[in-house]
Fold this protein.
Amino acid sequence: MGRFFADSCDSQVLDDEAHKSFVVQYTGKGYAWTNLTQRLGFSSRGVVEYATDFQLHDGAMYVYFRPRLIDGAAFQTTLVESLLAQGGLALAGVNANQLGKHIVESQLRRGFTVIRKDSSGSTDFALGIVPPGEEPFKPFQVKRTEKQILANERTEVHTGQQDYVGAFEVTDSNQALYLTVAVDGAPSADFLVVQKATGDTLLDSYLHSAGGASLSAPALLDDTGTQKGGLWQRFVNVDPGRYYLVIDNSAKLGKTAPDTSAKDDAAAKVDYLVLVGDRP
């Protein structure tokens, strides 16, 4: 339903005779989408205390972080996109900051799971509590690759909206980002790869202004994936640095624009796989 981008994150372990806790203090910004408000932009800071425990299953360790205390020190709404919702919230006496705070805290209350597999040495993460023996959902099954998997996820981008994935860090030279995408629910969606500075400018505009954000500098990749076209696969050569994948279902970016004449919201359901490896 949205994303959070941390500006700072500090953690410490509290270990006493009664219990052991993992405490995270964070600041950052983000966006969420609801039918009531459409896009909700916000900034937030707070503290979360997690109780930790683990279970072993078939050579894998499942480490659970269950919220013990959530202290939302501050939450500030930067955008309520729906004009109807703006008026309705005011008439109903609903505080937009309290609404947004509730959305963020409901996600934090899910906790998270870290899965460490001894057989491969890999580590996986998931929101919520994943039962032993199960794995987080991944839209693409990657059986074998020498490339590093940066993201293997599913998102939903509503009409007139964008989604910012990353930023991904590339540390070595002569590298490329490899993208695999499947589009459903909408005829097409645009996919752009931009440097972090460009993406940060886009994101700041997106958190404060209705509609999609516009580019201030050229994208490294700007292409379109379609529902009828099946899997969309591309690569883009990159230098060491950080990069966003921007998924666009608006008229502001890319080569296509969604049909806004329809009454129904044609949300683009997008599966995406992002890898980094040697240039071809």
